[in-house]
Amino acid sequence: MASYVKKDNTFEQAEPLSRECPHCGAHAQLIPTATPSFEAIRSAQPRQVGIAFRCAACNEPRFGRAAVRSIDTVRVELSSNIIEVERSRQRFPYNYLPPAVERIFREALQCYSADCYNAFASMCRRTVHAAVTDLGSNARLQLFELYKEVVEIGSIDEPTAQMLETVLFGTDGPVPEIGPDHAAVLIEMIKDMAYQCYVRTAKLRAAMKMRRYFAEEHSGKITSLDRHRAETA
Ligand SMILES: [Zn+2]
Questions:
Q1: How many whole angstroms from 23 Cα to the centroid of ligand 1?
Q2: Which of 103, 142, 216, 225 gives the lowest tally of CB atoms within 10 Å of its CB?
Q3: Model pLDDT for residues 95-149, shown as the tens digit of each residue
Q4: Which pTM does this prediction carry?
Q5: Which domain holds residue 77?
Q6: Same domain (yes/no): 110, 205
Q7: Is 99 found in the same domain as 10?
Q8: Residue 228 to residue 94: CA distance in whole angstroms
């Protein structure tokens, strides 16, 4: 379904456009806020035009471009295929990572979002390096166990698993070249490994600490402030 810029500069979409938002993550409608003028397209005759939208869920701006299909005296027809200029970002609770790991890992996910799959693969190997430097030499084995777990849970085929093992843990050669297929598996793998290694550990420790605190308070080992006040009043 095409969209149109009419002679009076009104913008008409055959049907509303909805996409996943890189800002809020919602699959929300894109509401046009700035569309090209009819006269400007008529005089410049561009192959593509830019349109600004706002996300119906979070109001953040979104930008797209569309091919110009035809220009006549009353309207301009635009392709329905709106290409978004801003890519969806990978989400991750980065605040659980130590700064040295976060810097590398964040850049790894940005490479993936930009479709730079080989840069992404290299940054994944550096993420493993950064985590091992942070956690100590035992972490290498721990990360390898997490990798094996993902291979098993995800039923990843043998050649892919071997290639990704070389990407992440290879020491005697360059990172092998990967394409979108391998990158799609690797993104889920590295996110899960980082999550299990840092986020799960931190959340579990915090939850246990909290439960033990309340258990001790309940058994009278810790005097809560209110009880202390009641006793001394
Ligand atoms: Zn949004």
A1: 5
A2: 225
A3: 999 999 999 999 999 999 999 999 999 999 999 999 999 999 899 999 999 999 9
A4: 0.67
A5: 3-84
A6: yes
A7: no
A8: 39
141 CA to centre of ligand 1 in angstroms: 40
Same domain, 117 and 184: yes
Among 71-75, 89-93, 169-173, 188-192, the minimum mean pLDDT is found in 89-93
State whether 206 and 103 are in the same domain. yes
Q: Are residues 138 and 73 in the same domain?
A: no
Going from the Cα of 62 to the center of ligand 1, the distance in angstroms, rounded, reads: 9
Ligand 1 centroid to Cα of residue 51, in Å, is 16
At 26-41, the pLDDT tens digits run 899 999 999 999 999 9
Count the domains in the chain: 2
Claim to verify: residue 127 and residue 176 sit in the same structural domain:
yes
